[in-house]
Amino acid sequence: MVICRECESEFKIISHQHLKYKHSMSVNEYILKYPGCNMGYFEMCETQKITVFNKYGVENVSYLNEIKEKIIKKNTGKRHSIDSKIKMSKSHKGKILTEQHKKNIGLSGRITIEDIKKKYLLFSRIEELRYNPERLKDREIQVHCKNHNCKNSKEKGGWFTVGKWQLSDRIRALESENGNEASYFYCSEQCKSGCILYNRRTDYLLKEENKINSSEYNLFRKHVLYRDNYICQFCGDKATDVHHERPKKLEPFFALDPDYAWSCCKKCHYEKGHKDECNLRKLADTICLEQNNKRVICQ
Q1: 108 near 139, Cβ under 8 Å?
Q2: What's the pLDDT score for residue 160?
Q3: Taking Cα atoms as reference points, which of 156, 105, 171, 107 lies closest to residue 135?
Q4: Which of 43, 105, 145, 190 is the most buried (most CB within 10 A)?
Q5: Concatenated DSSP letters for 21-40?
Q6: Mind listing the pLDDT tens digit for each residue in 262-289?
Q7: What's the CA gap between 217 and 258, in Å, rounded?
Q8: Domain spans of the chain?
Q9: At CB < 8 A and 24+ separation, what contacts does 198-207 make?
Q10: Most distant CA pair in the chain: distance in Å?
Q11: Does 64 score more than 70 pLDDT?
Q12: End-to-end CA distance of the chain
């Protein structure tokens, strides 16, 4: 045990937290004020070396990856007892955190775009994400508003900062087995209430018996292109795509009706075909297979 010369209290070690919050001084300031003082770190290191050597047969565990993995597995999911929680609560009581400390705590628990792309493959294919250019250090995630008339929509080239719960709800709707493809991103209640996709469900096309198979769609596509002589009905260039006048998500019964479709090139399909309506994802030709728990492969 060592004694703090400022308050005459006994500790195993004189920590920097004690000096900072109790005496408003750093470790260096304490050492300069009391040169040659014992802070307990040397004894703690020696005790730790003996304990580690007796348990693992080495003095330094950090070089043994296998032992590190065992320690991580052992502590994963471990919960603190009520007594430990009470002790931690008392030790943190009265502490005043700096603004930088609060910011660091918030950043440590914030999910990144890189993590989302690795963990949620289907979500990453559908939704476009970026960091706020004005706050890159804060890793503030931005998305497009689903309402095509909004200035923050993809059609208008806009972005808005998404909330944590909005992001998690959208991921759950796409990645979960019981998801319904909904929970779209909206920047305001006005955009939500004014969007025709709000509260819509895609259950009809998600049922196996109602899915449009590739042979049916290819026959429909070839018929429309042949009817229009492979000419884009917008600009007159060579047509490669088929545009649906009635979106498949909203009116699936007209998905293979050639009277409500026409030929167009890829450029016009997005710029003109979806200019005044929502840009809907092609569910009919997408088959998602879930493998290895949450690993999604689309083909």
Answers
A1: no
A2: 94
A3: 107
A4: 145
A5: HHHS--HHHHHHHSTT---S
A6: 899 988 887 776 654 444 443 333 333 3
A7: 11
A8: 2-95, 108-201, 202-299
A9: 200/249, 200/250, 202/249, 202/283, 204/252, 205/248, 205/249, 205/252, 205/283, 205/284, 206/180, 206/181, 206/283
A10: 94
A11: no
A12: 65
Do residues 173 and 180 lie in contact, with contact meaning Cβ atoms separated by under 8 Å?
Answer: yes
pLDDT band at 129 (very low <50, low <70, confident <90, very high): very high
Closest CA to 156 of 165, 164, 166, 146: 146
Whether 216 contacts 210, CB under 8 Å: no
What does pTM read for this prediction? Answer: 0.41
Residue 115: both structure tokens together? 């993590």
Contact indicator for 142, 132 with CB cutoff of 8 Å: yes
DSSP 193-208: HH-TTTT---HHHHSG
Q: What is the pLDDT of residue 278?
A: 47
Radius of gyration of the chain (CA): 30
Q: Closest Cα partner for 146 from 124, 170, 164?
A: 170
Report the pLDDT value the prediction gives residue 230, as an integer from 0 to 100.
Answer: 92
What would the two tokens of residue 273 be? 């075909």
What is the pLDDT, as a whole number, of residue 126? 84
For tokens 């009809």, name the residue: 204
DSSP state of 184: -
Question: What amino acid occupies position 287?
Answer: I
